[in-house]
Amino acid sequence: MFHGSMVALVTPMHEATHGNAVLDYESLAKLVEFHIENGTDAIVAMGTTGESATLDIKEHCSVLREVISQVRGRIPVIAGTGANSTAEAIELTRAAMQAGADACLLVTPYYNKPTQEGLYLHYKAVAEAVPIPQILYNVPGRTACDMLPDTVERLSGVSNIIGIKEATGNLARGREILERCGNKIDVYSGDDATAMELILLGAKGNISVTANVAPNAMHEMCAAALRGDRAHAEDINHRLMTLHKNLFIESNPIPVKWALHEMGLIPRGIRLPLTVLSTQYHDTIRQALREAGVL
Question: Does residue 264 sit within a domain?
Answer without folding.
Answer: no
